[in-house]
Amino acid sequence: MTTKYTPTIATEIIQEYSAAPEMLVQILHAFVARFAYLSDEAIRQISLELNLSRADVHGVVSFYHDFRTEPPGEHIVKICVAESCQAMGSRELTAQVEEKLGIKIKETTDDGQVTLEPVYCLGNCACSPAIMIDEKVYGRVDASKLDGLIEKCGG
Amino acid sequence: MTESVTVFIQYETAAVWLGANEIADRIAAAAEKNNVKVNIVRNGSWGMSWLEPLVEVAVGDDRIAYGPVDINDVDSLFATSFLQGGEHDLKLGPTADIAYLKNQDRWTFRRCGLIDPLSITEFQAHGGFAGLKKALESGTEHVLEQVKTSGLRGRGGAGFPTGIKWQTVASTDAGQKYITCNADEGDSGTFSDRILMESDPLTVIEGMIIAGFAVGASKGYVYLRSEYPLTQQIFGKALKVARESGWLGDNIQGSDFSFDIDLHIGAGSYVCGEETAMLESLEGKAGVIRFKPPLPAIEGLFGKPTVVNNVVTLGSVPDIVAFGGKAYDEYGVGRSKGTLAFQLAGNIKRGGLVEKAFGLTLRELIEDWGGGTASGRDVRAVQIGGPLGAYFSADQLDTPMDYEAFAAVGGMIGHGGIVVFDDTVDMAEQARFAMAFCAIESCGKCTPCRIGSVRGVEVIDRIVANDDREKNINLLNDLCDTMIDGSLCAMGGMTPFPVQSALKYFPEDFNK
Ligand SMILES: Cc1cc2nc3c(=O)[nH]c(=O)nc-3n(C[C@H](O)[C@H](O)[C@H](O)COP(=O)(O)O)c2cc1C
Ligand code: SF4
Ligand code: FES
User: Fold this and answer.
1) Pairing between strand B339-346 and B417-422?
2) Looking at residue B46, which CATH number applies to its domain?
3) pLDDT in the model for residue A53
4) Which of A67, A71, B169, B437 gives a 20 to 30 Å CA spacing to B327?
5) Taken in order B351, B337, B182, B208, is the CA torsion positive or negative?
6) Digit-coded pLDDT (tens) for A109-123
7) Is the ipTM of this complex over 0.95?
């Protein structure tokens, strides 16, 4: 569960990593896990406490796909769009989920329930196609299983 | 009944979300209702992914396997006395006799599926830590010698001889050195790092400690991709278990040698699997490729001599030290020594992990193990070695799996991923994806990769749309050559391989 950003919690997280600049990637992960995304305020605080320039922190944030800077939906649905899953119909599944949710990949539903993201392999390729919903990795996904999983997300 | 029956149910990414946890609960509840005692062990994966979730019952000296089990099968399993090995549609017989497993050459993965991955006792009962003990007794020179003799080459992709890499780090003077374990496993169609780290994590830990001992490093890092949350959980626990039992940390097993390991999580970047980008990321920075030289073995993490090895490379080391390099060298062919964990993926009937000595053919893997396509249609294309690997046509399935034979036909074995496509595949679409993926994942340092890949997508679109097709095909070939010649690393330098092989073997798909 994510919580609302507060500078106190943010400092606590940074201190867990001894405010070490080489832990920046791990700190950013911990922020996203805790606050769901990286706000400007968060980035400012991280740069101050790690003694880095804000541009440096921004550079790292924007390099990695995991570090989102916008609030995501309640659930994050990642569709594997890499080759093994393509061979098992991930293109069709992507179209199906886009239609069902009425959004494109990388968008969030209007009701804020679901954010749809692409992912390049979940290491579940022997059970392709695979998708990940909030850290759960489902294999052998077909149209009806996908429908069921999306419905559980309130989509 | 008093005696309890041991039931094994996997705790591994593929199985867990195919229902293994619920099945375990249901079996426990049904046993209680039926007044029988069961001892449920959560083992790792045997790598027979198509049979997951697999349930095994200890009967006499055997483990009788049932699978793939659905939660709704539990009642009928009880009704047919599966706890005594009773007959059932899902019964597969003794696990060890399943041909898929029986015909493998299990070395690195020999404990996967067999044991509870977090039990030091079981690990040791099946030969775990024998390599490390031997190393501590026999000294660094002996270890380096065994790894060199084994012929072990890097399993992460490039196939560089591990012994030579270790020797370089060992011979470089420095107060601090590092061992880094590359668990970024970004290639589509690969999951052997994941299976080893989830099913026998202590082997990877043991391999890292031995590497540290051999080169004189006291600190190790594992760089694990963020797409593997369950692996993170299991491996994190394994580190704890190893520390608590004195196999990791200060003065390992009372020796003079100390070594500890930190677990770092990647952040969804494919290029961070490249060793220098991984080191940048471990230093908390963006994963931009470094110029080489200097090699990481001379100036790596924080500028110190660093071993960078793949999970499977490190996991192969303990038994090489325990049994001697010669024993490993006996497997394989030519300069491809030992075993590789091939991974059967994509449109394949029996997907999973097959650890086999180098030298068998692609056809044996796809047909004998894999059983052909999942769709039942003809195999049309096979991509080997991840997104930077060439596509093979159905005519090339007799290529033997060895590094040199693959290089000779413009392919690469890489991390051993084999992705099968049936005859519904559109190879122009696959070529386009290769370029698009490079555009998304490029670290941005050099133009041929950063810009070339974007152009590549546009040019393929024009070819497919029959817009000045001849001219654009020539342009695509030129672009590929520029990327191959002008890119700093294999991201830009090898993306043309899937593109050009698609164009070469499947020209009709660009000509519709
Ligand atoms: C774009 C790119 C991605 C790579 N991804 C990985 C990876 O995910 N895992 C890995 O072990 N090696 C990967 N490599 C290879 C590493 O650079 C390096 O060769 C390897 O980790 C060395 O370990 P080894 O000798 O044990 O194979 C990648 C290389 C490139 C160019
Ligand atoms: S080839 Fe691509 S990924 Fe490699 S250094 Fe150049 S821009 Fe970066
Ligand atoms: S390609 Fe989809 S899980 Fe690997």
Assistant:
1) parallel
2) 3.40.30.10
3) 97
4) B169
5) positive
6) 999 999 999 999 999
7) yes
